[in-house]
Amino acid sequence: MGITALKTALPRELLASVVVFLVALPLCMGIAIASGMPPAKGLITGIVGGLIVGWIAGSPLQVSGPAAGLAVLVFEVVREYGMAMLGPILVLAGLLQLLAGRFKLGCWFRVTAPAVVYGMLAGIGVLIVLSQAHVMFDSGPKPSGLDNLIAFPSTLIQAFGPGTGMQAGMLGLGTMLIMWGWEKLRPQSLRFVPGALLGVGIATGISLFMALQVKRVEVPDNLADAIDWLRPTDLMNLADPAILVAAIVVAFIASAETLLSASAVDRMHSGQRSDFDKELSAQGVGNMLCGVLGALPMTGVIVRSSANVQAGATTRFSTIFHGLWLLAFVLLLSSVLQSIPVASLAGVLVYTGLKLVDLKAFRGLGRYGRMPMFTYAATAVAIIFTDLLTGVLVGFGLTLVKLAFKASRLKINVVELAGEKEFELRLVGAATFLKVPALTQALGTIPQGSTVHVPLGNLSYIDHSCLELLEEWGRSNAAHGTRLLIEPHGLKRRLEGRIYTTTGIGSGAA
């Protein structure tokens, strides 16, 4: 971009960066709390996502930072292994992303079945709602989604007793109500004001005016105090298989969510398209740096990115400036952050979690049959009642079952031709060992002494079990005058083993 074009675009980029900053500020802190981490950790990730990843990103209009999609996984990791283990996990996850980008593997993360991705996000959304519903009443989240669900009535009863639970709950619910109302009734002239910031701002003002003794955000006066530098000895923990698995899961989910978001951002504007491999590498650099600083993992985030595009951004400078505003705000106005009620941020997260349960996407999957809808639901339910990794594996397992079923579909028809005792065995689809019984049954209907043509041109694949069945049937019936003519024309590259049939069986040239 030339100097003149930059000067023209700069005012628009600055305005867009302020909008993104206003959206990102409450989300960075709220997602950190949902992850079981101090709010400052989320702010550090947001700053890195803007100032560092913004410069090198392959998707210039995408905004990176802490994401709700990883909050549940981070919470599990912190609960299981402690906050110190998150650093090594992020360093390895970032390295995997960097290598995946360098080896041009970005496209492979985009082939994940939409039903699995949407189901994963829905399951994560429900878990966020279940955990942050407790935080919204100044209580603490439980270890699992099921525990949070079972314990919520008790939390609600306690809120009606002595303490600040009911006051906090009203602030959280009020924040959600303001976000919902602003989304429905926001004037066009104020579209740049995010509902989350408005809700948190009003809740904070009310809590200060009424001097409510609710829990408030804990942010250090000096941001450097929130940095937990990675120690070389921490990297030794990567030898633990459980830590390795956690790093791989973080890398996969962060990459899938990032590239899904980048694809969505590309559909929102007509400017420069995303370079998915470059974006993946940039995310890897960002996550490695977050690991070194002891911060949260990052992904490309659709909420902030869509706000960026809608605010008129056309270059990466809006993303970079938003990181600068985050840094300046934390350094100069940390006391403002310390006055925010935790319950209000929990309300933002509950609202965000509900939005992740995308019923429109669920209904849209119905256009492709019941199986994608079932995969969506099964993935979400498995995540809610077990854990994130198990749920994703369930989704992938169902997808593979569907693929195996589709790949094994074979239409078999025996058609009598014009010649005397001349038949054609028509095969359409994939002839695998699963179809041997059906193929045997079809061959059994052909009279002995017939000439049987078997064209293979309509097959996508035939394995050795089906081919050997045809050859064996031809050999065993040759003594009765049967001639089997296998015509492999058009399938030479998809035949396992030999192309032409063996002694006693003719081979069609057509």
From TrEMBL:
<keyword id="KW-0812">Transmembrane</keyword>
<dbReference type="Pfam" id="PF00916">
    <property type="entry name" value="Sulfate_transp"/>
</dbReference>
<feature type="transmembrane region" description="Helical">
    <location>
        <begin position="374"/>
        <end position="401"/>
    </location>
</feature>
<feature type="transmembrane region" description="Helical">
    <location>
        <begin position="157"/>
        <end position="180"/>
    </location>
</feature>
<feature type="transmembrane region" description="Helical">
    <location>
        <begin position="242"/>
        <end position="265"/>
    </location>
</feature>
<dbReference type="InterPro" id="IPR011547">
    <property type="entry name" value="SLC26A/SulP_dom"/>
</dbReference>
<feature type="transmembrane region" description="Helical">
    <location>
        <begin position="42"/>
        <end position="61"/>
    </location>
</feature>
<dbReference type="GO" id="GO:0055085">
    <property type="term" value="P:transmembrane transport"/>
</dbReference>
<feature type="transmembrane region" description="Helical">
    <location>
        <begin position="324"/>
        <end position="354"/>
    </location>
</feature>
<feature type="transmembrane region" description="Helical">
    <location>
        <begin position="81"/>
        <end position="103"/>
    </location>
</feature>
<feature type="transmembrane region" description="Helical">
    <location>
        <begin position="115"/>
        <end position="137"/>
    </location>
</feature>
<feature type="transmembrane region" description="Helical">
    <location>
        <begin position="14"/>
        <end position="35"/>
    </location>
</feature>
<feature type="domain" description="SLC26A/SulP transporter">
    <location>
        <begin position="13"/>
        <end position="379"/>
    </location>
</feature>
<protein>
    <submittedName>
        <fullName>Sulfate transporter</fullName>
    </submittedName>
</protein>
<keyword id="KW-0472">Membrane</keyword>
<feature type="transmembrane region" description="Helical">
    <location>
        <begin position="192"/>
        <end position="212"/>
    </location>
</feature>
<dbReference type="GO" id="GO:0016020">
    <property type="term" value="C:membrane"/>
</dbReference>
<dbReference type="InterPro" id="IPR001902">
    <property type="entry name" value="SLC26A/SulP_fam"/>
</dbReference>
<keyword id="KW-1133">Transmembrane helix</keyword>
